[in-house]
Amino acid sequence: MSTRLALDPSGLLGEVYISFWIPAAVLTTALAIKLPSILKLWRDPLLRAVGGLLLFACAVFAFAAPGTIAWTNRVTGVPNIAAPWVYSLLTALSASWLLLVVHWRNGHTDRREQTRRATRWVVCVYAAVVIALWVLFALADVPVEQTRNLDTYYAGTPFMREEILLYLTAHTVACTITTRLVWNWIRTDGLDAWLRWGLRFLGIGYATNLLFSAAKFTAVVARWTGHDLDWLNANIAPSAACIAATFVAIGFIVPHAGQYLQDRWLVRRRHRELKPLARLMRTVVGSREPLALRATAELRLIRRETYIRDALLQLSRFLDEDLRGRTYEAALALGHERGRAQALAAAVTILQAVETGRHAPDGDGGTGEPDTSYLLQEIQAVSEVLRHPDEIKAVRTLAAVPAESMSTHD
């Protein structure tokens, strides 16, 4: 350790290390979130690519941990056999990156043949790399177990040297292509905001993976030239890989979790915004709306909407269509846009109907068949208007002006 720190320019980087289990946990979370969709739509090649990517990423960090490497070597009885196994997993992960962007970018009907050709090319090339890794390991002489510094320790060993260069090259090529395509896609118009943020995290993750390759290559080349930069291989490269994997996992989580949280927030906000109208309808029904503390946000919203619409149907016989027409014109005259004017007119009409209903004898009601379609469909807009009594008062006051005076505003 002292030698490593002496060669470390900062004197600190040699101690940098991030637990492999942190990105493994984040990747597992991302896989758990995506798994229902993957199983449900298994025939979708894009979802299969995502599933394969997350699965291989989890496996890489599970088997690349120094403790797991030592366990694998001990169980098999073959020194350093964990190396080709981890290299193979990393190569498969690199292939899954390419397959993902292939299906992302070429998943349209008119590009199916192009997608199939690209998929076959990626699978064949990276499968050949995996086979070559095992052949080279079988030919190499690596008797001394290395759990953290194998790449630099055997950097000059015949066949093992070629194996190290092969897996690093396959990883770097895949990472470079994927990074470029993802960042190009981020600049595409029409992307959903959550998807764009997810792609940004993916782009950062793949770009950070290039630091992993750069640190590994630098440490290996340093060994060839008689220098010792093993701290790059033992500390910086694994830490870069952990950070990169965490960003990639977040990139997959953000679009789903973000959309889910946004939907939940919109449901709760809609429920809250209906409160003024629900409180007003309580005077019509004479009882509170059904309350279930353990009900989901969606169910509470449905119950509130149903409660309001039922109350409006009871109130419909007291609705004054002439009043709604006058208040609508009055709202337009005050400068409100059409949608706002409709909501104000409906609010005034409902308030007047509530007052009429309170003093009307049982069984008494208005004449004609009022049009309740707008009221039943746009309860959100009407409830929002009830939060602004000053606007309602101004419209109500102007609507009370004789028709001859109102015509001057047309």
UniProtKB/TrEMBL annotation:
* Pfam families per record: DUF6545 (PF20182)
Transmembrane stretches, start-end: 12-33, 45-65, 85-102, 123-144, 164-183, 204-224, 236-261
Residues covered by the DUF6545 domain: 264-362
Keywords on record:
Membrane, Transmembrane, Transmembrane helix
List the InterPro entries.
Answer: DUF6545, MAB_1171c-like
Keyword flag Metal-binding:
no
This one is known as DUF6545 domain-containing protein
What phylogenetic lineage does the species belong to? Bacteria, Bacillati, Actinomycetota, Actinomycetes, Kitasatosporales
